[in-house]
């Protein structure tokens, strides 16, 4: 887990490295999610060079410390390597993130006076692949690494070493920032963030690096679930230019065939990706040197504003988002006018509801009845509510996607079975490779429709996973599940806060059940303020977090610290 904390200038004595901030407060950890993820200042590492007479163990320690400096393609780290090894070492490959605290060990052995082996054992935290995707390791995973050394001109140097970079959690927190590349769900109407870790040694080339990464396409994990408006093999004609808040992106002629709504979608991908940079206010899109005017943009002289393309926003909800909860089996809603019964049969209480889910357009509601069967109806004065699908079997969780489909996790003695009720009323089983033998306790589809969060396990031990949603014709699958919040031993409920974060109820190391913010990039799990006896959680972008409490009250928190009571009820929900 990467944490945020205010620190003084960091001096790594054992390795001989100083870490110096480039300005502003010195922070350790990932930048806060939001408009300016680069607001967390980059901390420049000044590595020590190898000293004459250092033994093999100290050479390896120095190399590991120097690996955290990206200056001149890890120029100092290469000084710890034998000349031929330094030439072929590929530092731009994957990264293994390890814990150098408790459990870390380093041993050296000698085959001869001029040949030695240094072996490292440590807990594995995560990996970062060459595309920048961060994947959290499972609890208990370890790395065992071997370095071969020999004497070169009387000094020990590394001749064989593991591929890629070996970095501690602190190294990653100092040298990287998480930035989103934005792609499109299969309908080309909503953006989907693809978080990647970007080294920020030099921010001057960051706009160019971001656009080139965007053009290369999504990470392997997300790729099957999303689309891009850029034609295949589209390239930059020259580096991205930034002047007085205007970013100029000049694409080659492959982009000429993009027209109409697809050009708007392409522009949305660029604007949302680049507006993470604090200097970006306007975008000038060029194709082979000619400025392109895009219908729907608001800037003057064919410029696009950073605020354009809100209709593609990945969070899926805008404006005041209605709040729903259950009181005495009936669905209630809360807005600026206060709490009142929801319209139609759902608000009448004739069918005792729990675990409600409201569609993103606010037109339909689903819930579980007293026998945990799915009931569905319309949210209007004439709306009905009744059994809808799956032959009356028992279910544990419901969620709506952006296409108007209802997802449902079936309660089974062994394994998981996930179903989808299409907007046309047809039933489909969702293929879920990776969940075989798992009991699904909760399921929430992201509002972009391309990712799904699930809680699997039982009331003694459960895990939070995130999977991608892949649509091929009429076949829908949830697959390639990755672990999140691995430091929690129990997760009881989950909700999508926004496109980047989840809110979960969970317990770490036999503590109390608390709400946590969980980054979907896998890096951080942060506890927030709480109220005792939390049973359920709900969240939405720009809206207070809601919690159902054991004493039959609904509470809300707008600032993640303080909570206040809403009123009597349970099972709070936002659309989605």
Taken from the alpha-carbon principal axes, the silhouette is: globular
Number of domains: 3
Q: How much strand content do the residues show?
A: 35-45%
Q: In CATH terms, what is the fold-level topology of the largest domain?
A: Methylamine Dehydrogenase, Chain H
CATH homologous superfamily descriptor of the largest domain: YVTN repeat-like/Quinoprotein amine dehydrogenase
Characterize the biggest β-sheet.
Answer: 7 strands, mixed
Number of strands: 43
- Structure class: mainly beta
Overall average pLDDT: 89
Query: Ends: how far apart?
Result: 28 Å
Number of helices: 6
Enumerate the spans where pLDDT stays under 50 for 5 or more consecutive residues: 1-16, 18-35
Please tell me how large the radius of gyration is.
26 Å
Entry keywords:
41% strand, Methylamine Dehydrogenase, Chain H, 5-stranded mixed beta sheet, 576 residues, globular
Description:
With 576 residues, the chain is mainly beta. It has 3 domains: 5-176, no CATH class; 185-312, no CATH class; 323-573, YVTN repeat-like/Quinoprotein amine dehydrogenase (Methylamine Dehydrogenase, Chain H, 7 Propeller). It has 6 helices and 43 strands. The strands form 11 sheets. Strands 6, 7, 8, 9, 10, 11 and 12 form a 7-stranded mixed sheet that branches. Strands 15, 16, 17, 18 and 19 form a 5-stranded mixed sheet that branches. A hairpin with a 6-residue loop joins β28 and β29. α5 crosses α6 (260-274). It is globular, with a radius of gyration of 26 Å. The two termini are 28 Å apart.
């Amino acid at each position: 887990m990467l944490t945020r904390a205010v620190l003084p200038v960091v001096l790594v004595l054992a390795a001989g490295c100083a870490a110096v901030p480039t300005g502003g407060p010195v922070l350790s950890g990932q930048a806060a999610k939001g408009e300016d993820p680069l607001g967390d200042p980059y901390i420049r590492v000044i590595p020590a060079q190898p000293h004459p007479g250092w033994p093999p163990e100290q050479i390896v320690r120095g190399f590991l410390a120097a690996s955290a400096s990206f200056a001149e393609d890890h120029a100092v780290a290469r000084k710890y390597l034998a000349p031929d090894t330094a030439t072929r070492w590929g530092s731009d490959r994957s990264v293994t993130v390890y814990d150098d605290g408790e459990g870390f060990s380093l041993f050296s052995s000698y085959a001869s006076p001029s040949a030695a082996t240094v072996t490292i054992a440590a807990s594995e935290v995560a990996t970062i692949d060459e595309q920048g995707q961060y994947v959290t390791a499972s609890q208990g995973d370890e790395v065992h690494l071997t370095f071969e050394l020999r004497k070169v001109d009387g000094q020990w140097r590394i001749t064989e070493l593991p591929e890629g970079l070996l970095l501690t959690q602190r190294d990653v927190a100092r040298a990287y920032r998480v930035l989103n590349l934005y792609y499109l769900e299969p309908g080309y109407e909503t953006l989907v963030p693809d978080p990647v870790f970007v080294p920020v040694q030099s921010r001057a080339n960051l706009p160019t690096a971001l656009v080139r990464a965007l053009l290369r396409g999504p990470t392997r994990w997300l790729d099957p679930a999303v689309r891009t408006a850029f034609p295949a093999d589209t390239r930059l004609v020259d580096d991205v230019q930034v002047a007085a808040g205007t970013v100029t992106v000049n694409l080659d002629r492959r982009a000429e065939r993009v027209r109409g709504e697809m050009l708007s979608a392409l522009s949305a991908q660029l604007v949302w990706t680049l507006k993470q940079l604090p200097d970006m206010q306007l975008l000038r899109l060029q194709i082979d040197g000619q400025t392109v005017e895009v219908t729907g943009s608001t800037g003057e002289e064919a410029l696009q504003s950073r605020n354009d393309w809100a209709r593609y926003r990945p969070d899926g909800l805008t404006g005041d988002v209605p709040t729903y909860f259950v009181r005495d089996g009936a669905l209630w809603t809360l807005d600026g006018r206060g709490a009142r019964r929801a319209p139609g049969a759902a608000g009448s209480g004739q069918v005792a509801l729990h675990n409600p889910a409201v569609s993103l357009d606010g037109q339909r509601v689903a819930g579980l009845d007293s026998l945990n069967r799915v009931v569905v109806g319309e949210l209007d004065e004439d709306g009905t509510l009744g059994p809808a699908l799956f032959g009356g079997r028992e279910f544990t969780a419901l969620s709506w996607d952006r296409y108007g489909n209802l997802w449902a996790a079936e309660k089974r003695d062994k394994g998981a079975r996930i179903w989808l009720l299409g907007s046309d009323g047809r039933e489909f089983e969702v293929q879920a490779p990776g969940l075989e033998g798992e009991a699904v306790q909760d399921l929430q589809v992201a509002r972009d429709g391309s990712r799904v969060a699930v809680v699997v396990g039982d009331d003694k031990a459960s895990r939070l996973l995130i999977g991608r949603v892949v649509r091929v014709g009429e076949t829908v699958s949830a697959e390639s599940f990755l672990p999140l919040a691995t430091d929690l031993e129990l997760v009881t409920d989950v909700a999508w806060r926004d496109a980047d974060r989840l809110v979960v109820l969970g317990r770490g190391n036999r503590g109390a059940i608390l709400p946590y913010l969980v980054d979907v990039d896998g890096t951080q799990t942060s506890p927030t303020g709480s109220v005792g006896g939390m049973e359920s959680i709900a969240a939405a972008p720009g809206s207070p977090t809601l919690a159902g409490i054991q004493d039959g009250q609904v509470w809300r928190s707008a600032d993640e610290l303080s909570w206040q009571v809403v009123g009597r009820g349970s099972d709070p929900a936002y659309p989605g």
